[in-house]
Each structure stands twice: as structure tokens, then as C-alpha cells.
Amino acid sequence: MSRITHSTPSRSDDSLRLDAVSRVYGTGEGSVTALNNVSLSLPAGTFVAVMGPSGSGKSTLLQCAAGLDRPSSGRVFVDGQEMAKGSEAKLTRFRRKRIGFIFQHFNLLPMLTVEQNVTLPLRLSGRKPDRRRAHAVLDRVGLGGRLGHLPSELSGGQQQRVAIARALLTEPRVVFADEPTGALDTRSARDVLALLQECVRVHGQSVVMVTHDPVAASYADSVLFLADGELVGRMERPTAEAVAERMTHLGDEVARRRVTAGA
Ligand SMILES: Nc1ncnc2c1ncn2[C@@H]1O[C@H](COP(=O)(O)OP(=O)(O)OP(=O)(O)O)[C@@H](O)[C@H]1O
Ligand SMILES: [Mg+2]
User: pTM for this structure?
Assistant: First the structure.
């Protein structure tokens, strides 16, 4: 009996794969290599934190992986599908279908209510906003009673939970978050991190989160360390102490690498 083979370019159980992704800003003398040949793959249902010194390329990595920016070279696969090349409209469609993004400063639209903010991505992609689902997602983040409120009537932590609800409504396979707790107090940060964990544990989504905070990183299943645009380490089952320790040494390692490279 013949086997059915699928010539998929990526393992289907990877929710995210980067193949030799580089991002160079500018050209010639003043060009900056923000990402240098980064390859990684994440199985579905994993929570990964990305850490590294300021300017090490964390945001660039997230933006390239999430289709908010295009790599200068290399390939990105989300849920086994290669990130759309070609027109901006095609890339936007790809992103809306598969990816959620959470920003440090929430990026809610100030004139829209909580409910309208959450259903906006559906409306933008021409789908009918399913209000029942929107309410269910807002319930899940503990804001079922705030549907008609404006962002300015909410605390920072509540606004970030609205942003999470917005990112979850389209049921993306991968949720990217760039310092989602950076602007929050400890208690609100914990709520946000618990929600991100729930995405992974309960709903099987993958989360990729940039953070400077070893405690936040300890909520993840593993931590990737970036330095000078390169992946320089990985830690499984991180504890806050182990991450803090690794971060301290990362500075020394970066200095050593620069000396060796003659920079
Ligand atoms: N639009 C741009 N044009 C030119 N250089 C850029 C641009 N965006 C980022 N860079 C450079 O790329 C490098 C990586 O930047 P990136 O924002 O990814 O760092 P980061 O690790 O997120 O830093 P931080 O922790 O401060 O947020 C830096 O040297 C930065 O100056
Ligand atoms: Mg950044």
C-alpha cells in the first residue's frame, strides 16, 4: 500500500519556524545588522521568553516573526505555512489569520469602547464581529463588566487585558508579546502572565514574549537569549534566579564576543 506523503516545507507540529532570518537596517557604512542568521523552531503549545540586552534585536525578531516587518533574508513559517511574500495586503491577511500581537503600551484605540477594540481585527478582516465570542473572551480576562468603557476609563493592567482579549479573538496559533508587562505593576503583570500561560496550557496556542524581567521569563517553558542579533543560549524550565544569573553573565559574554570578533 502506498503511503500518503506531504511535501510540507515545515514540520506541521511547529507553530513557528525561522530559517536563517537576518534583518539589516539601512545600507553601506551606517547599516545595522539587527538580526544575524537566526534559526529556531517552536513546537505548538509552547511559551517562550526572549531576553537579551537593549539593542540585541528582540523587538526586531518579534516583528519579523510576526510579519510586522520583513526579514532582509531567510524564511518564516507560522503553523507550517510560509509567511506571505509579495504585497502588503497579502502579508496583512496572513497575519490577521494566524497571529496575535500584544504591545507594551497596549495600542488600543482611544475613541473605541472595550468591545469595539476587541472586535476591531475581525471587522478589519471583513468578518462579522461575533459579539457573543467577544463577550466570552472579555469574561475570560475578567473584564466582562466593562464592555462599554473607553480605554481611558481603565487601569493599565485592565487595558493590557483588553489587548490580550483582542489578540485572542481571532484564535491565532501564535501570540507575540513585546514587553507586555513592561508598563504594569507587579500584581497586574502577574494577571497578564497567567493569561498568557492559559493560552498555552488550556488553548494550545504558542506564546513568544520579549521581557527584561527574570520573574516574567520564569512563567515561560523556555528562554531564548539574544546578543548582538544572534541567538546565544536557551534555558529550559527557567527560574527567575537562574535567568537573572544568566543575564548578568550575558553582558560579559557579549563583550568577549566583540573582542574576539575584533569589533
Ligand atoms: N528602524 C530602524 N532603523 C535602524 N536601526 C534600527 C531600527 N530598528 C531597530 N534598529 C537597530 O537594530 C538593533 C536592534 O533593535 P531592537 O529594537 O530589535 O532591540 P531590542 O532588543 O528590542 O532593544 P530594547 O530592549 O531596547 O527594546 C539596534 O541596534 C537598533 O538601534
Ligand atoms: Mg525592544
Answer: 0.90
